[in-house]
Structure formats: C-alpha cells, structure tokens
C-alpha cells in the first residue's frame, strides 16, 4: 500500500492556450525541475449500478498510458477513503499493471491491506461496470529540492466524459498536480507537504488563475454522471 500525498490545483476550462503555455515555459526553466515528456492517459472509472464504491469513498480505475516510442500499458488502481484540505489530497492507493483492457480484481483484492476496503471490493466487484472516463494529455516534470524532497509536477489537459444513449457528454479538465514522491525522514516533520504548498505559490505567481481544489478527477466524473443521468 502507498499513501498518496498530492496537491491539486485547478484552472478554468476556458483558459487561453497562451496562458497555459506560459506555465509550461516556467516549469521548463524552473531550477531543480527536469522535464519528463508527455503521456496520453485514458481512464475508465468503475462502480456498481448503485454506486457502492462512491458511497464508500473509494475509486476503482483502469488506465491506459501511452507515450511516443513506447508500447502502451494498462494499469488498475484502487483509491480508498482519504481526506482533502486546501487542495492537499491524502489517501491510500494500490496500483498494478494488468495484461489488457480488463480489471483483474482478485490481484487487487489480494494486494489491498485495508480489510474493510478489500472486503468491499470482494463483495461488490462482480457487479462493477464502467461509469465514466477521463481522457487527457499529461505533461510531467520531476522537481528535486535542495534538501532532497522529490515532487512530480503534472499538467493535465483534456476532458471528463459520460456516454448515455449513444451520446458523449463532456466537460473540460485542466489541472496541475504536485505529488510528493520522497522526503527526508519519511516527512515526519512535514517538510514535504510544505514544499508542495511552496511550489504551488510559485506557480500562482506565473498563473494566478490556479486555485486549490479538493475535488478529485473521480468526483468530477461522478458529478458529470449525475448531471447527465440524473442519479
């Protein structure tokens, strides 16, 4: 099990391309940051017809990751109950490669070391179906601070989508995510989280439209689903 610590910053969906490009240029020249290229991510989120996973504040995802010059890879991910405050999301996460375009729930249940979450997936897994999708291009940087704190910076541009009655309904998705990868002494003193907030302040100097966001991509999908399907 991993504990994910990630600071999420949202942008208006109609942000002009020139403004987004200014942020990219800033990150390309940020001291301590190394550009890591782009990925195209297609993410399908699964739940039961009664949305049992959502009610338990869990998210189940199948992700396809593609980048130029490399074969694509499928991953399955389970995220469990966590908390979000001032844009900082802290939650349990289990992620595994899978052979193809299908969930392998037995392996995910075996890896999940939170008994209540594993039991929920065991009880409900047979009835899960795809509910919505996020589709975006992710541009990545790895930032290393002077004390060794490592942060992955991701700039995501794409959409959230729900298909109903043969029609695709979408909303824009434009976010920056700052994920804590490593920190001295396992971040017992909280330096890693302070670094995430310091980085966010630096980015806001370039792009004031950035704002802390406690809403995850999964929550965005559920909200669009409710808007489209009415339930």
UniProtKB/TrEMBL annotation:
The keyword Hydrolase is annotated on this UniProt entry: yes
Catalytic EC class: hydrolase
CYTH domain span: 2-228
Keywords, alphabetical: Hydrolase
EC number(s) from the headed UniProt entry: 3.6.1.25
PANTHER family referenced in this protein's UniProt entry, alphabetically: INORGANIC TRIPHOSPHATASE
Protein known as: Inorganic triphosphatase
Protein species of origin: Pandoraea pneumonica
Gene expressing this chain: ygiF
